[in-house]
Structure formats: structure tokens, C-alpha cells
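[step 3/7] fold_predict: job queued, chain A
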Amino acid sequence: MKQNQTAWLILGMLSVEPNRSGYDIRKAVESSVSYFWHESYGQIYPTLRRLAAEGLIVARKPRTKGRPERQDYSLTPRGRARLREWLAAPYRDHPIRSEFLLKLFFGRAAPPDVSAQHIRTCQERNRRQLATLVELEGLARTKHRGNPHLPFWLLTLSWGICILRAAIGWSEQALRSLARKRTLPAPRKTAPRLTRPSKKGKLASPRRSES
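[step 4/7] structure written:
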């Protein structure tokens, strides 16, 4: 059966650490991949049940007091094989939908300072996110030292850090460009040159002044 994206997320999370409940998976997503992957948490529990029915994961009830409804899930050999197939398949690029870029594209129709303010807002947001990722990178190196998954986690963090640094550099350049545009003199408006209609109804060239 064709899997949705939530299924691959769950199989991947259980490959990192087995015996996780739906709540555990949700918390793991929030603390790891949420900065580049937005998951609908309402899909996690239905997808867990479907994966278990397909034999890709197995559920068990841990012996914990006060939590009789809790179920922990782990990968089955079939689920691990399916995950490896998905990892080896070419990835799909999803179309970008950026309201920020859309507003910049049509920025000529707004007052001059509107686009600049949008860029400043984006710049500050990127700076905050960059600080967060740099902090996460340091924590990951300390907390997960020796973890075989760490080099791959650091790859995703370094990708985000590089993209944000480039975006911040772009925003500075864009603000300078808009500032130069505001200081340029407005183009001179020249009166249109009138032409006389020809006998055939076509426009004729203007007459030259006689000396």
C-alpha cells in the first residue's frame, strides 16, 4: 500500500529509537525535525494503527502503572526494509509557496517602505532562527556524542544554518538595493510627439522644421 509522508516520518523515528508511543514520537518530532518538517499531529495515531495493521510496526503495552492505554511501537523487519526502500528512492521536491516572496514580487504597487519592512521582518526572524539552530548544534554535539545518528543530524542542522546565513546576507543586500532606488531621481517625463495621419490612415513621420 502506498504510504503517506507521516508513515515515513514514523518509521524513521522508530528506526532511531524503538519502543516509542505516539506521544513520544510527537515530542521527538518537535525537538528534532520540526524546523524543516511540519507534521500534522492528528495523523500520527491513525497512521500508527495502519502501519501496525500492515505489519510494518508492532505494538506492545508496557508494564506501567496508571497508563493502561499506552502502547509502544517498534519496527518489524518488514518495516525496516520498507524504510530502506523509501530512503533509497529519489526525493520529491514540493513547490515553494512563500507569501513573503509573492509580496516582494508585486512590491511596486505598494508604498516604497512596505517591501523594506517585510525584508527587515524576515531578516530578524532568520536571525532568531539561526541563533536557535547554532545552539541546537552545540547541544547535539554534547548530548549525543557517540550516537551513530549524530553525523546525519548535524548535516540537516548545518544545511539550515547555511541557508539562514545566506538569507540574512541577501536581506542586507536587498535593503541596500531598495535604499539606492529611493535616492535615484525620478525619470523625466517627456511630452509625446504628435504625428499627423497619412492619407491611408497610417501614422506618418513628424514633419521636419523648415529652416
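[step 5/7] annotate
Residues 150-183 form the longest helix (34 residues).
The radius of gyration is 29 Å.
exit 0
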